[in-house]
Amino acid sequence: MFLEVEHVSIRYPRTAHPAVEAVSLRLQPGELGALIGPSGSGKTSLLRAVAGLEPAQSGRIRLDGQLLEGDGVRVPAEARRIGMVFQDFALFPHLDVAANIGFGLRGMARAQRDEIVAQMLALVGLPEAGRKFPHQLSGGQQQRIALARALAPQPRLLLLDEPFSSLDVELRERLAHDVRDILKRTGTTALMVTHDQMEAFAVADVVGVMRQGRLEQWDTPYALYHRPATRFAADFIGHGVLLRGEVQPAASTGPQTDIEVRTAAGLLRGLVPEDAVNAEGTQVDVLLRADDVMHDDASPLQARVVRKSFRGAEFLYTLALENGQQLLSLVPSHHDHAVGEWIGIRLEVTHLVTFPSMESSLAAAPSATAETTPVAADSTA
């Protein structure tokens, strides 16, 4: 492993709860990670601890085998060889672009510094911008220069704190893909903080969801979307709903069990681990993503359009079943249905994920793990 964060906790003075609580994560060399979560979830505090800008009260942080923090050791920020890119770019307005990029190369021979600056400008696609000043650049160009400046000293790790938040939506998406390409070309290991899950998915190989200082899940974007490990992660990532259902008779198939869950939208079937919560009659909540619910005029299953949100190529429909339970569905925008209209739908669930029902959990004794123990499976029907 290249970056290892082990059970790190951070607490600020005069606060009732830690900002970061026992968080562990790892990054391989050249891997790109991202932390997402609501405001106040501890993302930036953890990033600052890795950078050496915030002390951790407990836990360890290692980089390329070197202990940076923990067990009485605290390597100062300037000695960690970690680069940072900030949301406000933090370019020096009185220096031209070349001087900004070369700022961290002071003490190096001028010819060598100029060569590295030229390489960085070419890397970020702005080879002719060296003599311009930051105010002469667009927001996207300024962010590229900030990235070039951070990469010029060849940091062991790059940290990015909300790097696209000050840019418009279209530019953010394009720049996110460009940044990923640049970091992959240079083999840079990086950890990014963002509020925008689409940015995280566009840039990162692995993404962490944080909530109230804890890391809910650290996984690939695909797994986070299709196999969320907690109810919070399921709700925070993507568009979806949790539909009430009841587990039907199960059949064991070796290390996995074939279960069926009866819902108001039909019978769902999938394989789950044998020791998962799958007893017949168990009340569960089934995760249905908006892309699991397909528009189909020929389907006998009908739902009423409650709300519609036009998104250009598609509508995001909020639909109500006959019993009042709601679903979300992404539908091509040429299917323009009126609010109140009944339309045909069918389910194409490729990943069956269920959680203990909130209603049954409230009726039973409180359980510390009730929210964090999903039943996840590949659908077989």
Compact description:
The chain has 381 residues and is of the alpha+beta class. It is built from 9 helices and 23 strands. The chain has helices at 43-51, 97-101, 110-123, 139-151, 169-186, 197-203, 221-226, 231-236, 358-363; strands at residues 3-10, 20-27, 32-36, 58-63, 66-70, 73-74, 82-85, 157-161, 190-193, 206-211, 214-219, 240-247, 251-253, 256-263, 266-273, 283-289, 293-295, 302-310, 314-320, 326-332, 342-347, 351-356, 375-378.
Would you give the CATH topology of the largest domain? Rossmann fold
Poorly predicted ranges: 361-381
Derived structural class: alpha+beta
Query: With helices defined by DSSP (H or I, 4 residues minimum), what is the helix count?
Result: 9
Radius of gyration: 24 Å
The first-to-last residue Cα distance is 39 Å
Number of strands: 23
- How much of the sequence lies in strands comes to 35-45%
User: Which architecture name of the largest domain does CATH use?
Assistant: 3-Layer(aba) Sandwich
The figure for the number of domains is 2
Mean of pLDDT: 89
- Percent range of helical residues: 10-25%
So what's the CATH class of the largest domain?
A: Alpha Beta
CA-based shape: globular
For the sheet with most strands, the description reads:
7 strands, antiparallel
Assembly category: single chain
CATH homology superfamily name of the largest domain: P-loop containing nucleotide triphosphate hydrolases
